[in-house]
Specification:
Length: about 300
């Protein structure tokens, strides 16, 4: 059963919060983990567990339960991608924070009421605030499930939306990934009922178009995942899979090339060859680095 760590981030650590989210890492001062059980709690986290970061709340010197209905200015949900490790490499400008975990940000929301997270989660964040931001563990993911339900709507989770190939493993994490993709689809489609595929050029109903990351979501930074320059419309009747698995790729001049591994079956070779030599749509300097990453890391 996955578990959840809750960590409070005070107002004056806003810049550190942004840096940690962008770098995909969170860390603690050793002095904050020297208290009873704090270090062991962090060391018990495994890949696939969750970290909930609460930022900018009221005075934490209140009685237990005193945060049950307050508002946190920001709540971030992340999945653990790398368990506990120590590293002195500079990340944050004000201190080393050498005891670290790797994280993948799944969702962040502003002005979250305590009732959305639940009493136990809010109490864990209050305790963390009183322990210099040390993580407080809960042996379940109830609050994360509550957040997934609260943040998601029918509009965010359309029935024809599919989850990114390299998305999060757990069903709960996939809810957050789908919500992110739904937002990107709306930005890409801009209300259009149809769109052309960037690779084959066929104009298709929007339900057959994926807002596909060019640089894989799992390898992209938090900022890169949300950049439209890293998103292309790829059709679900062949092009999306051909690109995703590196059977085709985009060259430095913006034309589509075929990888030799596409010859593994005759029919696959035919499908890939239909795209060879085409100029990918909307190619330019804003997209070139992402296509370059795909060419080097997926197609090779």
């Amino acid at each position: 059963m996955p578990k959840t760590a809750y960590t409070y981030v005070p107002s004056d650590s806003r810049d550190n919060l942004e840096i940690g989210l962008d770098q995909g890492v969170w860390g603690w001062r050793s002095s904050a983990l020297d208290r009873a059980g704090a270090r062991q709690a962090i060391q018990s986290l495994r890949e696939g567990d969750f970290l909930v970061l609460g930022h900018k709340g009221p005075n934490c010197r209140v009685a237990p339960g005193g945060w049950s209905d307050i508002t946190l200015q920001r709540v971030v949900v992340a999945e653990i991608t790398r368990p506990y490790f120590t590293d002195g490499a500079p990340v944050w400008p004000d201190d080393e924070y050498p005891e670290r975990i790797g994280i993948n940000v799944l969702e962040e929301e502003q002005a979250v009421r305590g009732g959305t997270l639940g009493v136990e989660a809010m109490e864990a964040l209050r305790l963390s605030a009183n322990k210099q931001g040390a993580a407080v563990l809960r042996s379940d993911i109830a609050a994360v499930v509550r957040l997934a339900d609260a943040f998601s709507s029918a509009e965010d989770l359309p029935g024809d939306e599919t989850v990114e190939h390299d998305g999060a493993d757990s069903a709960v994490a996939q809810v957050f990934v789908r919500r992110e993709q739904a937002k990107l689809r709306r930005a890409l489609l801009r209300g259009s009922a149809e769109m052309g595929c960037a690779l084959c050029g066929r104009v298709l109903p929007s339900r057959l178009i994926r807002a596909a990351h060019i640089k894989r979501r799992s390898a992209a930074t938090r900022a890169e995942r949300l950049m439209l320059a890293n998103i292309m419309p790829a059709c679900l009747i062949g092009c999306d899979e051909l690109f995703e698995h590196g059977y085709v790729y985009v060259t430095e001049d913006g034309t589509i090339a075929v990888n030799s591994k596409s010859t593994s079956t005759p029919d696959l070779a035919v499908a890939a060859e239909t795209l060879k030599g085409r100029l990918v749509a909307d190619y330019g300097s804003h997209r070139a680095p992402f296509y370059g990453w795909h060419r080097t890391n997926v197609a090779n």
